Amino acid sequence: MGDAYVITVIGVAEEKVPISYRDGKYPYLDTKEIDITNIGSRTRGRIVYVSGRFVKSDDDKSYIEFQRIDNIALKLLNAKIINTEKGTLILKYEPNSILYLIEIPSGFRGGIETQYLHGQCLESLVLRSPSGSLGYIVHIWCNGNAEIQYKISGRTTTAGYGKLTKLFGENLSGKVKIQNGEVKVIFDEQLDQLLS
What we know:
With 196 residues, the chain is mainly beta. The protein is built from two helices and 13 strands; from the N terminus they run E-E-E-E-E-E-E-E-E-E-E-H-E-E-H. The protein has one domain.
């Protein structure tokens, strides 16, 4: 895997994702370097261009720093994701906004179905093998509050995938709600309402 790592500063975990440059000028990150859930390998990701305002450097290494807010989520302040007409994803500087990044991995040799119930979100995939036959990871980039319904398929008994049921429920289906700076995974909406 790449040089992504996590540091904790006064109770706030920071996730540093390496930045590369196209033509020595345009900063970008490769989504295969983002590992929020620590489930499965990452072979091929997607390029996301990044505003230079987010790029930091230490020891000749450039990176972007996200805040970890949950076992499946990161956030970036003053940021917004856009999709150009050509399909290029860009992290743009946008004052007073929050970008949330949710990671949902499939089971081994499985898939993921998502439906956006509300909010403005874009998706990027990370393949676990060159053709994706071993499964994949969905990164969901949301500008502000959102609600996402998910259904995960694939084996969870394969080594390294047992954590899936802890993060996403025994049935591997439910909703992810992003509201007021918090991310909540709901496995059973009716039971969740009754116990709240």
